[in-house]
Amino acid sequence: MKTILELRGVSAGYGGRSNRVKPILQNINLSVQEGELLVLAGPNGSGKTTLLKTAGGLLSPLEGSVLIKGKESRTLKSRERAKLTAFLFQVRDAPWSFTVRETVAQGRFARSGWLGSETREDRKATENALHKAELTHLAESPVTEISGGELQRVYIARSIAQGADLLLLDEPENSLDPKYAYMILQLLQTIVREGRSAIVSLHDLRLASRFADRVALLAPSQGIVALGTPDQVLTKETLGKTFDVSPELIESMVL
Fold first, then answer.
1. Which class is domain 3-254?
2. What percent of the chain has pLDDT over 70?
């Protein structure tokens, strides 16, 4: 099985007002294989978003190296990185009144640029993404007139159309009702099974238990405190220590 992503001894963080860098993560060693869905779980402030940004090259590591398909992330040009990684983060601008099809097609711009002419391959990738996300019947609808769950599927379809090997998603189930959250993870699982890979941060541990191949559990100021299958990581003892809650509450979080 091919290694899509590898983090070696990575430390990452952000500069403050004094321009001193504050490490959020330290000495992270992690790899993601082709066809794997890795879930990042942990309390707020544990570094899940920081890890996603560092993994995809949006944030340069303070120490260590990030390899995407064997290539050092910091050496990749933007279009080359776009062929390898696609992002979906929590904070997104309010959608413009493009149609669903037009919004999904924007995923191809990462490869060709905004002024590039649409090719037959671009159109095929767009239609394929619409089909996978079950959005074909909404293709001509303005994205301003669809539900929140449907809009989230549009954004994921845009990432699919981009054709990247690695999808990086920050809480894609956020603010969705259980039905749509389940559909989103089911869609991601289908994409991964076809040969791509995904790293997804989730608050809902029940979804992590159901869909993850592996779970990386993070704790504030500690980095990755457990890594393995859901059965190995999502235990009462481990989650109780990480989230600092009672075993009774942990049971309700994962069942």
1. alpha beta
2. 92
